[in-house]
Amino acid sequence: MIEHVNEWLGAYLDGELRGLRLRQVESHLAECSVCHSELESLRNLSALLRESAPAGSFTPSERFAANLTLRLPPQPELPPSRKVLNAGWWLIPAGILGAWVFTQIVTGMASLVVIVSQAGLLGNLGTWLQARSQPTDWFTTTLYLFSGQMSTNSLTILDALNQAGLFIQDSITQITWQVVLVGLYWVWLASWWLRRRQPAANQETLPIRRVT
Amino acid sequence: MAALGAESETRLITNAQQGDRNAFGELIRRHHAGVVNVVYRMCGDVQLAEDAAQDAFIQAWLHLRSFRPGSSLRNWLFRIAVNAALDVLRGKETTAEALETLTLADAAADPEAALSQKEQAMLIQRAILSLTETSRAVLVLREYNDLTYQEIAAALDIPVGTVMSRLNHARGCLREILKPEFRHRENEND
Lengths: 212, 190
Description:
Order of helices and strands of chain B: HHHHHHHHHHH
Radius of gyration of chain B: 18 Å
Number of helices of chain B: 11
Strand content of chain A: under 5%
Oligomer: heterodimer
Radius of gyration of chain A: 34 Å
Strand content of chain B: under 5%
CATH class of chain B: Mainly Alpha
Distance between the termini of chain A: 63 Å
Structural class of chain B: mainly alpha
Structural class of chain A: mainly alpha
Number of strands of chain B: 0
């Protein structure tokens, strides 16, 4: 018994079928006169619909646009919370990128200080550093070199970051920081892609207001 | 306006979102024909379609800041246009009464042909108006605006499978209603 493909003929006519389904419909149409006739009927319907011109004339686009532009009401202001949210949305990737660059610089400088220290190029400072625990090398060196030029607030922030273990040279900690940042970036990227992919679904159904 | 016309749509949207009426005017000019096509086929009446098109563009202007750059403005406008047309239809008596008043631009040139054309246009528009709103919207976006199933799905916020089933349903109904017209065409072809 032949299984007809009626339910797919409309999609076939509209060029919406792909792959296996398309081949299945095409091969069926080559053999089945019933479905072929059905397809012709759909084609005729489409032609009939399209050839029926609008029964009347509309205002030309230029004039319609010019008239309507003059009558447009003022656009409503976005609520401040929405503005903050919009700005914050785009600040997220910038913040993640900034944090990543910062950790790269910190870990790079920390490695450099250790190498220079071990090579004995820091003079007395090298001896001083050896008495300290390795993880705080970068921090203590920064303090030694720049403390005179830094404000109290800057020193406090640096100290807090040091206490948080950010300057630790442990490779596992470095990798963990990077994985966390990359993970955050991917989460943001995925949500951005989802927002783009379903624009209509998330945009409100607009109410109609009559113009007077 | 010539320089404005050369601007990309994205730029025009951004400017219009910041309150630039000229930029929005250019967007209206670009999308007017498509929107009018949707609302006319949804309403079946020129005057109602003009009203609905106007409503649609004003709603678009008022909500433009919620439009996300990167998505299709045309599909977004069509979605608004469908809603506007349905709203206008609900507010007015139309269908048969409105269709009786249809006039054709070239009626004076060839009255007999124009009458036949008018009758056919009325018949088709009546058939379209007899469809349910949901089926009509899908049919109009496909047949008169050439949207793909994916675009229709996005514009009406329904799954692609639903687009296909509603389109099949609409075409099935129209074929039944327009059977005499098909026979007439077949006879003409013979």
